[in-house]
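Continuing from the previous page of notes. For each protein in this section, the sequence appears first, followed by its C-alpha cells. Read the first protein now.
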Amino acid sequence: MKNKTTRMLVTVLGGWFGLHKFLDHRIGAGILYFLTGGLFGIGWIVDIIRALTSNQHQCDYVQFTSEPPSSPIGNGLYEACIDVAGSSYYCDSIVRCMKRNPKYDLPDSEILKLGRNRTYEFFPLDANAILMPDPNNPHDNNAVMVLVDNNLVGYIPAEYALFVKNLIYQKSLSFAGVSILGGNVKIIYSNRDVVIDRNGFRVKLKFTYRK
C-alpha cells in the first residue's frame, strides 16, 4: 500500500479485522486484529488516526520497499546484484564456507620463492545461496537471511528486504548465489618484514527473479 489514500481506505473499511496488517505482511498482528476485532476497536481507531494524520509512516514504507537495481536477462527474468549487509558480524560462519589457501601457511621464504608477496588466507568463493525470511528478527520483521550451506553470511539490506521477501513468498525467485572475497592477507615486504592485514569479508549477492 504505497498510496496513502489506498492505505486510509483499507484501514477504515477493513482495519477492524486486520486487513491493513495482512497487506503489510504483518501476519501475526493481522491474526490478532482478526480475533479481537481490531484490538477491541482501540487499535483500529488508533491506526485510522495514524493513516489520516501521519506522512511519516508512508515515507518509511516507501523507503523500505525499494526494488534493487536490476537488468532484464530474457524470458521475463531480471537480475540484481547487491552487497549483503551485516557480513562483518558473521565472519565465523563465513569462514566455515571458505576453502583455506595452503600457501598461506608456508614459510615466508617459500612464499617469496613462488614470486608472491601478498597471499590471502582463503580462496575466493562462488556458491549458491538460500534466501530465507527471518520474521523473528528483533530489528526488522521483514528481514531476509542469506545462507550458504546453512551458514548465515549476512542479510538482505533493509531497503530491499520486503521486496525480496515478497519474491520468496510469491515463488518468483529463480536463483541466488554469492561471491565472497576478503579475509586475512599476509604481506611480505622486500626486507622480509611480514604484516598480516586483517580484512573482513565482502559478500556480494546475485539473484534472478520474475516480475
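Done with the first. The second protein uses the same format. Note its length before scrolling.
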Amino acid sequence: MGLNSNKTTKENILFLINPVSGDKSAIKETVDVERYCQSKGLNYKIEFTKAIDDAQKIIFENPNYDVYVAVGGDGTINEVATGILNKGSGVLGIIPRGTGNDFCRSLEIPKDLKKCLDIITGQRYKEIDVGLADDRYFLNVASIGLDAEVVNQTEKIKEYIKGKKAYIIGVFFALVKYKSVRTSIKIDNTLSENDLMLFAVGNGKYYGGGMKILPNASVDDNRLSYCMVKNILKFRVLTLFPTIFSGKHLRYKKYVVEGKADIVEVDSGNNMILNLDGKLYHLEKKKITFKMNAKKLKIKY
C-alpha cells in the first residue's frame, strides 16, 4: 500500500492503523481509505502497528510525511502524537476507532470515516496543548488513584469478560482493593496534604469511555485542568461515580476540588499506577510532575 504518485496536494499522508483497536473496524475500513485517497489523487501510505509503541518506530522510519493519521483509540493517538513530537515536525490527523474515543469527544471529531478523511485532507488545522507527566507526553487526561486501579482491574478481567460488564466488575474489585493514600500535592505554589481517592489532570474533558472528569478543560488554553477527589466513604463513591459522566461531580465540593494550574507536583509516598491517555504505567517512584510541554502540536481539525 505504497505512496500514490498522482499529486493533487503537497501533503504526504501516512495512515497508522491499529488493527486491534476497539471493534477492529479500522482494519475493515482500509479498502475505503485506499479508495478515497486514490479518488482524490493523494500522496499516501498505509502502515499497520504490530506492537506497543510501534507507531513511533514507523514515524521514525518514514520522516518525509507531512500528516500522520492515528487510526485507533486514545492510546494510538498518544503514540502517533509522541512520534510527531519526537520527530519535531508533522501534523496529527485522527480517525477515532477505539473503545472510548475520549480525546475526540473534546475536539468534536466525528466517527464517520468520510468526514474524518475530508478533515485530514483539508487545509484547516489548530495548535493544541501537550501535557507532560515527567518525560511522557499526554494529550487528554493523566490520573492516579482509584480510576487507575479500575483500569488495572478491568484489564485483568477482560481476559475472561468483555465489554461494559468487565468495567463494572473492575469498579467493584477496585473499590474492594483500593485504599486512599495520604498524598502531598503542590499546585503551582500551593502545597496541601490529603487522603486522596483520585487525582486527574489534563487538557481533555473526558476519559474512561465518556466520563466528564474535567468539564472545564480546554485543549488550547495553555493551562492544565485538574480534579482531586479526597477520601470518601466507599458507599458514597457509588453515588459520586455516576455523576462524573455528566460532570456534575463538581457539585460535591466537600470531596471534590477542581481548578487550573501551570504545574502540579504529586508525592504519594508509594509507587504509583499512572493512567496516561488510557494506558497504564506501573511506576517505580513516588513522585511525579505534571506540566505543559513548551511546544504545541498541530492537528487537522
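What the second structure shows: Residues 12-123 form a domain with the Rossmann fold fold (CATH 3.40.50.10330). The radius of gyration is 20 Å. We return to this in next week's lecture.
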